[in-house]
Structures are given as C-alpha cells and as structure tokens.
Write a structure and sequence with these properties.
The protein is mainly alpha-helical. Helices cover 79% and strands 0% of the residues. Helix 2 (31-57) packs across helix 5, helix 2 (31-57) crosses helix 8 and helix 12 packs antiparallel against helix 13 (283-308). It is globular and about 60 Å long. 44% of the residues are buried.
C-alpha cells in the first residue's frame, strides 16, 4: 500500500470535513437537514457508487467468492468488537448502565459514510465494491444483534429482518444479478451512476463536518471512561487484533487484506445515536463518541497504516 496515497486521501477527506463544518455555520443543521443528508447519501450516493463499481469491474465467480468472504469477515469482526466492548467495560466499569452502548460503539464503524468513499479513493472501483461488501456485514449486525441488544425487552421478530433490507444492500444484490445475467446496461444509466457516485465522498464528509460543527453548541456531561473505552477499542485495539489475525491466517489476496484492515479502522458508526434514541438509550454518548472518534481517526488511520507499511 502506497502510504503517500493514504496520507493524501486522508488530507483530502479532512479538507472536505472542514468545508462541511464551515458551511454548516450558514444554515441550521436541524433534524430535517440531517435526514436529507442521510437520504441522499444512503439511498442515492452509496447505491450509485456500488453500482458504478460493479459496472466498471464486472463480477465473476472469483469476485463473488471474495464478496462473500469479506461479508463473513465483517460479521466476525463486528461480533468480536461487541464482545471486546462488553468484556473491557465489565473490567473497568462493572456496574455501568451503558454497557450496551459502549459495546456497540466499540464494534460498529462508519464503513459506509467514510469507509466506502475512502476505499474508492485508495483502491479504485474494485476496492469500493469490496468495501460495500464489508459494510453489508455491518448492516446485518446493527439491525439484528445491535437492535436486539439495545431493546429493553429483548425480542426477536420480523422487524429485525426488515431493518437489514436497505437501498445499498439492494444495490449490491441488483448489481450481482445484472453481472451474472450479463445484462446490457444502457450507457445513460452507466453515466448516471458514475455522476451520482461522484457525490458520495463530498456529501458524506460534508455531513460529518456539519455534525462536528453542530456538536459545539451542546455540552455533553458524561463519564470519561464511557467515551474512552469505545474509542480506544474501535480505533486502536480492534484494528490491531484484526491485523494480527490477518498475519496468522492470511489466505486471501492483498486487496482484500487492505480493505479489511482499512474498514476495521473506521470511527464509530454515525447512525448509532439514531439507534440509541429509537430505543431510549444514551444518544448523546453515541453522538459524542462518533464525533470524537471521527476527528481522532484522521490521525489514527494514517498512523496505523504508516506503521503497517513496514510489515506488508
């Protein structure tokens, strides 16, 4: 992995976040604007970058196998992260009432909003496609195990399964069907997805920037360990464990190795505060950890990759 490209990409993303934060000073970042961002990013930009990647790369049996592999690896990493969050919280804060929030924030990363665009910049269309496969694993965990954990009265029902079905995941399925059936896609559709895909990176970073700017207006009182534990696990401990596992059980190609490592380094999931609010959990903790981990990840991602460049 060319570490120079990594630094340039992180700087590029940092500049976009700063632009997003600066722009947010001139409008009210209320729930309606926030929802508009989320709809544009998750329902238009992300599916477009997925479909655009599939149209450019094409999907054969080997790519399908790699997509399935990275999807399963993602599920394993996220379950591992949740387990680490619970174990370390029990060790440092045995009687904490926020074990569930800390565990989820320790595991689930911003693999969609930041991970897919970053992998597209670093590794091109094929990298974006595999990053989307990793993000699909995150979606499965958050809308099944994640929702189950945050409920006060634990229930397993069809609503959990409905949560998994989202537009980016459908884009992957549709793209795979198109590739397998060898359907001829009109050039106007290809150009449209390419154009819309180009909005994914700036829109996602502008949203993060606006979120950071908006956080300055509220003072959040919370225990420092509630913040520190998930950030240390998500940005340092979990990526380190993933890297060790990869070196021990390395059985797949370098591109997948890089995608898994980069996606495991992503900051806490942006949608965590929304999930916590829906089930009467501590949404302010979710928002604060997301924002702080996003800011710190600008340093930790290139830093860890720089250290890793000496070994792979």
């Amino acid at each position: 992995m060319d570490i120079t490209v990594v630094f340039q990409s992180i700087i590029f993303i940092f500049i976009l976040i700063v632009i997003g934060a600066f722009s947010a000073k001139y409008y009210t970042f209320n729930s309606d604007i926030k929802n508009l961002y989320i709809v544009l990013i998750t329902n238009i930009a992300m599916p477009s970058i997925i479909l655009s990647s599939i149209f450019k790369v094409g999907i054969g049996i080997e790519i399908l196998k790699k997509l399935l592999l990275i999807f399963l690896i993602s599920i394993f990493i996220n379950i591992l992260g949740i387990g680490l969050g619970f174990i370390i919280t029990l060790f440092f804060k045995r009687y904490s009432t926020k074990k569930v929030e800390i565990a989820i924030l320790s595991a689930l990363g911003n693999t969609g909003f930041i991970g897919i665009p970053l992998c597209a910049v670093l590794f091109g269309s094929e990298g974006a496609l595999y990053a989307a496969g990793f993000d699909a694993g995150v979606d499965v965990i958050i809308w099944t195990l994640g929702v189950y954990l945050v409920q006060k009265n634990k229930q397993l029902n069809l609503n959990l399964l409905k949560g998994i079905v989202n537009i980016p995941l459908l884009a992957i399925v549709i793209g795979i069907i198109i590739a397998i059936t060898n359907l001829k896609i009109p050039s106007i559709i290809v150009e449209l997805t390419n154009s819309l895909a180009s909005f994914a990176i700036p829109l996602s970073m502008f949203y993060i920037g606006a979120l950071i700017n908006n956080s300055r207006r509220s003072f959040i009182k919370t225990d420092y360990l509630d913040i520190t534990i998930p950030i240390v696990i998500k940005l340092i401990l979990l990526p380190f464990i993933v890297i060790v596992f990869i070196f021990i059980f390395k059985t797949f190609d370098d591109l997948l190795v890089h995608i898994v490592i980069v996606q495991s380094m992503m900051p806490a999931l942006t949608l965590s505060s929304i999930l916590f609010a829906k089930y009467s959990r501590d949404e302010s903790l979710g928002a604060f950890v997301t924002i702080l981990s996003t800011l710190l990840s600008i340093l930790t991602i290139p830093g860890l990759l720089f250290l890793l460049s000496y070994f792979i």
